[in-house]
Amino acid sequence: MSLDLDIHLKRGRFTLEIQATAPAGVTVFFGPSGSGKTTLLRAVAGLEAVDRGQIVIGGSDMTERPAHRRAVGYLFQEPRLLPHLSVLGNLKFAQKMGRKVAPQSFDEVIALLELGDLLERTPFALSGGEAQRVALGRALLSAPKCLCLDEPLSALDQGLKHRILPYLERLRDRTDIPILYVTHDAAEMARLADHIVLMQAGRSVLSGPAEAILSDPAAVPYLGVRAAGTVISGQVMARDPTTGLAVMGFDGGQLILPELSQTKGRSIRIRIPAQDIVLAREKPKGLSALNVFEGTITQLHAGQGPGVMVQFKTGETLFLARVTQYSSQNMGLAVGQTIFAIVKATAFDPAGIGT
Ligand SMILES: Nc1ncnc2c1ncn2[C@@H]1O[C@H](COP(=O)(O)OP(=O)(O)OP(=O)(O)O)[C@@H](O)[C@H]1O
Fold first, then answer.
1. Is 204 in the pocket of ligand 1 (CB under 6 A)?
2. Total-model pTM
3. Secondary structure of 163-179 in HEC code, one letter for each residue
4. Going edge to edge, which strands form the sheet with 25-30?
5. For the residues of 139-199, what is the DSSP string, one character each?
6. Residue 144: closest CA among 112, 101, 106
7. Which ligand 1 atom is the nearest neighbour of the CA of 39?
8. Which residues have C-beta within 8 Å of that of residue 218, sequence separation ≥ 6?
9. pLDDT profile of the chain (355 residues), mean per 10
10. Is 11 near ligand 1, meaning CB less than 6 Å away?
11. Ligand 1 neighbour 271 (Cβ under 6 A)
C-alpha cells in the first residue's frame, strides 16, 4: 500500500504545493517550523480541504472523502483519549469506529504495544508514554490505510522517548501501510525513517530513501549540520562479554560498537553524525579509536560556513564527514581519492541505536 499526494492549498499568506509518494513504511517530513508539515498531514487526513490536487491511498482516491471515511489514523503530539473510558474502553471504541475490522486483531495490537497491563486503567492513571502507546493502539485498531504521526514523541522526556521508539520501530517493520511522520529530532528521524521528504516554505526540496538523503551533502542546508550523517543498517555479528563491545557487519565492513542490548544475529541500524568522523589521507597507525575503514571520496561540498562536507563510499554504504575548509585544503581532498575514516566506538549513542 502506498500514498500518492499532489496538494495545493493556501491559508492566509502560506501556500502548500507538494507532490510526494510515501511507500509502505515510515516517511519522515522534516523542515523548519512553518514549512507546512502539520498542514500536509491534516490535508491527508481530511482535516484541511485542498484547493486542488489529489490524495490517493492504496489506489483509492480520497480527495473528496470526508475525514471519517478516509481510513487515516492520526496521532497528535498529545494523546487524545476519552477520559471517562478505561484503556480497554478507549481501544474498543476506536475499533468500533473503524470502517472495517483491522487487519491486526485486537490481541495483536495489545501485544505489539504491550498494553496488556494497562487495560483496566483510566487515562489519568497513565504516564505520558503509556498514554501515547494507547493512542497509537487506538489509531491502529481503526483499520487505517495510512497513519499520520505528528510529533508523537515531542511531549515526552528523553527517557520515555527512547522507551517508545522500539514500539514504533516494531510497527514500522510489521506494517504494510504508509506512515507519515513529523519530527524535529534528527536522531528520531535517523532511527525511524525509511524515506525522508525535506520541506521548506510549503514545498518539498529533496526527497528519497533515508540513507541517501542523510548522507547527501546537498541535504545539509536543510537538515542542519548536526542532523546530517550516515545511517547504516547491519547485523550484530559478535559480542565480547569482557570488553562489552559488539561487532556489527555492514555492506562495506565491520564496526565496533559500545555494548548493545541486541543479541547476536539481530538487525540493527546506527547513525554516525558527520561531525563524529575524522578523515586521514593515509592509513593511521597506533590509534586508540577502534573503527578505521577505507573509502573513496564521492562528493565534496563547501557550504557558506567554515566546513566542507565530504561524502565517501565504503562498499555500498555512503558516509558523510564534516571537516574544516582549512583541513580540506591542507589534505588536498578531491573526488575519487582514497581516504581513511576514523570513528570512536563511543561516537555511537546506545540510545540512538535502533533496529
Ligand atoms: N488557517 C490558517 N490561516 C492562516 N495561516 C495558516 C493557517 N493554517 C496554517 N497556517 C500557516 O501555515 C504555515 C504552515 O503551518 P504548519 O503548522 O503546517 O507548519 P509546520 O511545518 O507543521 O510547523 P511546526 O514545525 O512549527 O509545527 C504557518 O506559517 C502557519 O502559520
1. no
2. 0.89
3. HHHHHHHHHHHHCCCEE
4. 72-75, 146-150, 178-182, 25-30, 195-200, 203-209
5. HHHT--SEEEEESTTTTS-HHHHHHHHHHHHHHHHH--SEEEEE-S-HHHHHHH-SEEEEE
6. 101
7. 18
8. 206, 301
9. 95 96 96 95 94 95 92 87 94 78 74 90 91 89 90 83 84 90 91 95 96 93 87 85 82 81 78 91 82 94 86 94 93 96 75 70
10. yes
11. no
> ipTM score of the complex?
0.94
Answer whether 38 contacts ligand 1 (Cβ < 6 A): yes
Mutate which of 9, 10, 11 for ligand 1 pocket (most atoms within 8 A of beta carbon):
11
Query: What is the 34 CA–ligand 1 centroid distance (Å)?
Result: 5
Quote the ligand 1 centre to 8 CA distance (angstroms).
14
Residue whose entry in the numeric block shows the C-alpha cell 510515501? 22
Sign of the Cα pseudo-torsion (38, 355, 161, 230, in order): negative
Cα–Cα separations (whole angstroms), residue 131 to 126, 153, 276, 304: 6, 11, 36, 44
Show the cell assigned to 163. 522507551
